[in-house]
## 1
Amino acid sequence: MTITLNVPPEIERQLDRIAKEQGLSMEAYALKLLTESVLPQDKSTKLVNLLQSWIDEDDTQEQQETGEYLIQALDEDRLSDRKLFPDELKGVTW
């Protein structure tokens, strides 16, 4: 796709200067700027939507089981005998 922009002279000079510093044509540098500003937002939007879909799911039983498994695994895989999640603190601190 081709886009034609009417750019003020001061912006054109800055684009040209920075593009030359980076060894790019002004067009290549402008495309690089557009790509860097548009694509991350698209990825961020997809990520936010995915996380929101996980939050909206009603998997409380699965989350409870996963949490208990993680706590058990973390307590078992320690060099120390001291538990990270002692039974007497369940419901108090975690």
## 2
Amino acid sequence: MDLPAGRFHYRRWARDIGAPTAILVHGNGGTWATWSRVAPALNAADMDVFALDLRGNGSSVKPPVGSYGLHDAAADLHDFIDALSIRAPLLIGHCWGAAIALALATGALSDRVPPSLSGLVLEELPPDMASTRSQPVVQDFLRLMRSPREYAEKWVDLVCRDWHVVDRRSLLENVYSADPDVYLSTIDDGAAAGPLLPLLGRLAEPALVLRGSPGRGGMLSDVDWQLALKHLPHGSSANDVAGCGHEIHRGDHATFMRLVTGFLHSCDGCQENTTGSAL
């Protein structure tokens, strides 16, 4: 579809008119394929589901390096919602996608009124984009992008051997389609937004914040996690998913879906913060 920034690609898993809607927002270097198992599972739970290829990724428009700020990506998502007249969607974002969802919901980097949303699921929200460059998971992804396919396939089969085969394939699809220059520009341009965790305190909608284990590649340190909990508003929840790394939705799909569906069932009646651990 055509948006102000150019032509964007998306996938849809449709339900009947009036069904609640979810928009899935992938992380840096990803595509809609990130959600290859999540999208059908949400659709089976009677949700109308959209998964967008963000600018510079997959089959969507690829602006020049230097055009990947958080305000640019959030504007794209806002335009996508407006173009399809999507009413009060749930935003589910992973890493960079979580940052985009948070920026859009709070209107922090825009003079536009944020769209009406039903809630947010923020998986592995980075504390800021600048700090992600040195993260092992980022360096691993860069190395895979620059390596022969045979190496990437063996690496994924070894490191992600406990993942479902669909999730391993979707990760490889992300690796093969990603552009290292766009990937690094997203980090550098996104860093201009500054600290992201304080934006949690500006949310008007309920949110579910999920953290993977820092020892397994999770983005949020213990200090960052305490800061996130401090800013998380009433009506929201947070779960520290022990034993899983940065890719919770792929590394522990069952727990991810259990937490998301539980959030969907409870958020309308949420009155206070809850925090917990998923084992």
## 3
Amino acid sequence: MTADAGQSGYVELPAGRFHYRRWAAGPEAPSVILVHGNGSSSATWSRVAPALHAAGLHVLAPDLRGSGASVRPPVGSYGLPEVAADLHDFIDALRLPAPLLIGHCWGAAVALTLATGASGGRVPPALSGLVLEELPSDMAATEDQPVVRDFLRMMRGSREYARSWVDLICRSWHPADRESLLADAWGTDVDVYLSVIKDGAGAGPLLPHLARLELPALVLRGNPRRGSMLSDGDWQLTRRLLPGHCAAYEFSDSGHEVHRSDCAGYLRLVEDFLHATVRPGRPGLPSTLRG
């Protein structure tokens, strides 16, 4: 599996100019939007996007506000309603028919907010489904939470420190994933990163929105003893709240960055889910995702 940066593009939205990457497919190909987490950018999907494109999908990965090469509004402008509105505008501007959303952490929270209309004010766009990786129970993380603490140290430390940390902690990852994590850490504005947490906290608990899902969804988490942000109690609640047309799966050997630490396993589940939701003639969830 090789990394492919895709085609870089820009689109003017009400909030400003947004950058995205596109892996184009034929006009009949289903569309998938990859929504990155806090402190990341479209670079986080360096192996996921090309693999989904190779499977025949039209793949797009936007840089959310404040990230990558997209517009950077002032601190205090990073609540879930604002970011979900950006994603809604992105879908409208590119005229994407019923895309599937795949989100990681903050991106998962944004995707869930958009799909359920939790931010209010607008009717959600037509979507074919959701994949929510490491959906936080809420956005009110603290600086001593391991995932947040470690990433802040990478952002605030020297490049030598960040590289040595990644080489040690992420030594089992594919080199492309280690490099994309470093690119994220070196390219992230600390003030924006903290604003996402502070502003996003205003949305309150996120897991109750799962019960409102009317479209298929696959919720994924890593192992909390390896860095997952979802506690065992949160995971039990997630499984109770999910409607019957949705599924949940835990990666016991991964932490918060499932799509990087176990890219092959992640892609197997996601592609199974895609075949069940956006491909014609494959109704219902496959047996690997039921229960």
